[in-house]
Structure formats: structure tokens, C-alpha cells
Amino acid sequence: MVRARTHNDETPLGRRRLQVAAALLARASYFIWSRQLTEARAVLDQIGPSLDDLNPLLRAQAHSVIAMHRWFGGQPERALEHYRVSAELYGANGDRYLEAVELYNVALTASKMVAQGRLPQQVADQAVAQTLAAAV
Fold first, then answer.
1. How many Å from the N-terminal Cα to the C-terminal Cα in the chain?
2. CA nearest neighbour of 39 among 60, 59, 78, 68
3. Alpha-carbon distance 76 to 78, whole Å?
4. How many alpha carbons lie under 13 Å from residue 23 in its C-beta half-sphere?
5. How would DSSP label each residue in 32-94?
6. Global pTM value
7. From CA 24, how far away is CA 97, in angstroms rounded?
8. What angle do CA 101, 102, 107 make, to 5 degrees?
9. Closest to 32 in 3D by CA, of 67, 60, 86, 68
């Protein structure tokens, strides 16, 4: 009798297949996001200095896209700057939900940088506290 393979396969081989599938899915998601972010960045580059002429919510969205592009491009310091600007713009315009989302991105980026030895733990702790305060 041949046992059907399902997502509940608890054998070591079944668990390994699940891990490989998850890794492939994450990698595919990264490439899809990366391509979309590259295209979005090209559009934002065309906007150039007039980015400041956008209304604050569109400017916040633009900074968020730039931050994601920087994150995936291996530039967490620059991503951090853009996530912070985006959070400030959303907060100043009363969008508490998106402010909290961007503050979470600040905390996540800061945590990554702490793990890499590029930022002190105190900065990441402060970012987490800000995120939690905004989310409540």
C-alpha cells in the first residue's frame, strides 16, 4: 500500500519537503516584490524633487515603497529613514493604522540591524516601544 503524501506528512522527508516548498515560495515572493518595487522606484525616480509636491498621504506611500526597495536592496539604513518619514506623515494625517504599520517596519528593520551589529539594541527597543504605543 502506498501512503498518500499530504501536507500532514510527519516523516523527516515530508517535513523536509515542506521546508523546501516554504523556502521556494518565500524566494518567489521576494522576486515578485523585488521586480514590482524596482518598477515602482523607476516611477518615483521620474517624479524626482516634486515628491514633496504630492499630498501627504501619497508622499507617505511613496516613502514606504522606497523603504521596501531599500530593504530588499540590502540598504536597511536608508530603508529605516524612509519608513520613519512615512510613519510621521501617516501619523500627522490621522491614519493611526498605517502609522503603526510603518512603525512596525521601523522596529523590524532596526532589529535586523541590531542582529548585524549595525545599530545599538537601545534604538531597536525604542522602535518596538513606539510601535506598541501606536498599535494600542
1. 55
2. 68
3. 5
4. 6
5. HHHHHHHHHHHHHHHHGGGGGGS-HHHHHHHHHHHHHHHHHTT-HHHHHHHHHHHHHHHHHTT
6. 0.68
7. 31
8. 95
9. 68
What would the grid cell of residue 110 be?
A: 532596526
The cell for 98 is 498605517
Length of the chain counted residue by residue = 136
pLDDT by residue (tens digit) across 33-63?
667 667 766 766 666 556 666 788 888 888 8
Report the percent of the chain where pLDDT is more than 70. Answer: 63
CA torsion through residues 13, 14, 16, 17, sign: positive
Grid coordinates belonging to 24: 521556494
- pLDDT at residue 69, rounded to an integer: 83
Euclidean distance between CA atoms 99 and 24, whole angstroms:
31
Query: Using alpha carbons only, how large is the chain's radius of gyration in Å?
Result: 19
What does residue 77 show for φ and ψ, rounded to 5 degrees?
A: -60, -45
User: Which residue has 501512503 as its cell numbers?
Assistant: 3
As a whole number of angstroms, the distance between CA 18 and CA 24 comes to: 10
